[in-house]
Amino acid sequence: NKFTLTKPAGARSVDEITGSRRLRRMRKADWSRRLVQENRLTVDDLIWPIFLTGGTNVREPIDAMPDVFRLSVDQAVREAERAAKLGIPAIATFPNIEAGRKDETGSHILDPDNLINAATRAIKAAVPQIGIITDVALDPFTSHGHDGILRDGIIVNDETVEQVAAAAVLQAAAGADIIAPSDMMDGRIGAIRDALDANGFQDVAIMSYATKFASAFYGPYREAIGTQGLLKGDKKTYYIDHANSDEAVREAEQDLAEGADMLMVKPGLPYLDIIRRLKDEFAMPTFAYQVSGEYTMIKAAAANGWIDGEKVMMESLLAFKRAGCDGILTYFAPRVAEILKG
Ligand code: PBG
Fold it and tell me: Which family does this protein fall into (predicted)?
């Protein structure tokens, strides 16, 4: 008892409907799919964010980020060596500062021997061929977890900018190749550029976290750097409202006018529309940060057997390329590099 559609009079054949255009023709075999593939992910697209902690020979697991560790400097050097061998062009470092070193103004960011600077020096000495991107922001260093100096409940912009610019000079002096300000204060890019130039670091580039959105996807990161539980309130007075897209264009335009060499969009996958807009608008080197929460969602679903984790990982990264990214900061970087190596 099966329904058969009576062909209406004058029914068109598929060839009549499509005008003989058949989009499946080029999908018919692996070789033809490869031939027409528009975007590719290569190891050259990867930036690997790593977490730093004190001590020696420490590899501390992070609960909410399976297979990601906080590394003491010696271990970070080992991992940088591994990354370089895999062909990963650059790493980005994020410090977990011990509670006793945090204060209201994040003053430890101005210690030339703090964790981030010590790690840069050690990695640069041992693995000079890998690029080092240092995040410059106060949040790992403040007792309240904000990216700025907090006074009477307000994140004060201009003083924060001064401190961030000074910290950037220290990071450059330690050997950072790219300074990546992630605090979203107004005027930080220009102030950092001026400070770097005045101190002989004309060749140090700036990757602006130009469009950093107020996002719940950063949750696991805060466990990783030990700011979860510290943060009072939220970051909505300095990060962009995630409802906005024109504002992201204005932010990027401003950062480029102030001297940013590269733009970053953060978080990543839920913001592909922003990536495409910035790439089309400015034609600048454009990066995305596949943040901790995005990583964790894939790992968690995979651990439950609900998705094929590695396939979803590769698909998510290729999506960034399709959206116009020149590269992606991703915690998956070493695994992806292994897979791409075959
Ligand atoms: C803040 C900073 C954040 C991340 C890196 N630097 C966001 C935040 O804590 O508010 C998030 C990275 C991630 O989630 O993977 N300067």
Answer: Belongs to the ALAD family.
